[in-house]
């Protein structure tokens, strides 16, 4: 993997520790609520798995598949739902779990969409945040790590559907994603 990794930004140990801290915060904040956790496919799955194991209360889990990137490495700003929820959000307190917030387009759209569907509240938990890239202001209620403007892989994040299984978050060497 040394030939593709520029730099490890967040280690496995740091992620596990932060997921425990976030799980405790979420448990405290939602103790008497009907919490529905919505993971954004595919990137958030690994982080969400670690996070929910650290939430000490009953929760409902569902998933959405969305895209604002298409086949590009740059967001188009147009959000498309690829896989919708299996369950209703009416009357639920919703926590969206995302792998990374970049431009903010996707989460801005999803937050508005879920509120219109009847959710009591919609908050955001993300493993990673790249505030330098933000185009739309979205409130991040639970933050794992702020990272620099790098193309990152690992712990669920991919490049061309590869490298999601890396046990850390790393910046990808530019020559890897600019090959062609």
TrEMBL record:
Superkingdom: Bacteria
One biological process term in Gene Ontology: IMP salvage
Cofactor: Mg(2+)
Pathway: Purine metabolism; GMP biosynthesis via salvage pathway; GMP from guanine: step 1/1; Purine metabolism; IMP biosynthesis via salvage pathway; IMP from hypoxanthine: step 1/1
Alphabetical keyword list: Cytoplasm, Glycosyltransferase, Magnesium, Metal-binding, Nucleotide-binding, Purine salvage, Transferase
InterPro entries per UniProt: HGPRT, Hxn_phspho_trans, PRTase-like, PRTase_dom
Annotated catalysed reactions: IMP + diphosphate = hypoxanthine + 5-phospho-alpha-D-ribose 1-diphosphate; GMP + diphosphate = guanine + 5-phospho-alpha-D-ribose 1-diphosphate
Phosphoribosyltransferase domain location: 13-159
Enzyme class: transferase
EC number: 2.4.2.8
One cellular component term from this protein's GO annotations in UniProt: cytosol
Pfam families: Pribosyltran
CDD domains listed in its UniProt record: PRTases_typeI (cd06223)
Subcellular location: Cytoplasm
GO molecular function: guanine phosphoribosyltransferase activity; hypoxanthine phosphoribosyltransferase activity; magnesium ion binding; nucleotide binding
Family, per entry: Belongs to the purine/pyrimidine phosphoribosyltransferase family.
Primary role: Purine salvage pathway enzyme that catalyzes the transfer of the ribosyl-5-phosphate group from 5-phospho-alpha-D-ribose 1-diphosphate (PRPP) to the N9 position of the 6-oxopurines hypoxanthine and guanine to form the corresponding ribonucleotides IMP (inosine 5'-monophosphate) and GMP (guanosine 5'-monophosphate), with the release of PPi.
Protein name, per record: Hypoxanthine phosphoribosyltransferase
The organism of origin for this protein: Paratissierella segnis
């Amino acid at each position: 993997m040394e030939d593709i990794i520029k730099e490890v930004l967040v280690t496995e140990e740091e992620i596990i520790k932060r997921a425990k801290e976030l799980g405790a915060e979420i448990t405290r904040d939602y103790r008497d609520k009907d919490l529905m956790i919505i993971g954004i496919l595919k990137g958030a799955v690994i982080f969400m798995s670690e996070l929910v194991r650290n939430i000490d209360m009953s929760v409902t889990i569902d998933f959405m598949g969305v895209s604002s990137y298409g086949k590009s490495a740059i967001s188009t700003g147009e959000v498309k739902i690829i896989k919708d929820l299996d369950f209703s959000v009416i009357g639920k307190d919703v926590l969206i779990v995302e792998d990374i917030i970049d431009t903010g387009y996707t989460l801005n759209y999803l937050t508005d969409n879920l509120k219109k569907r009847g959710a009591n509240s919609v908050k955001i938990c993300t493993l990673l945040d790249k505030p330098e890239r933000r185009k739309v202001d979205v409130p991040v209620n639970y933050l794992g790590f702020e990272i620099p403007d790098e193309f990152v892989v690992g712990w669920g994040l991919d490049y061309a559907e590869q490298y999601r299984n890396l046990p850390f978050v790393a910046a990808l060497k530019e020559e890897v994603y600019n090959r062609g």
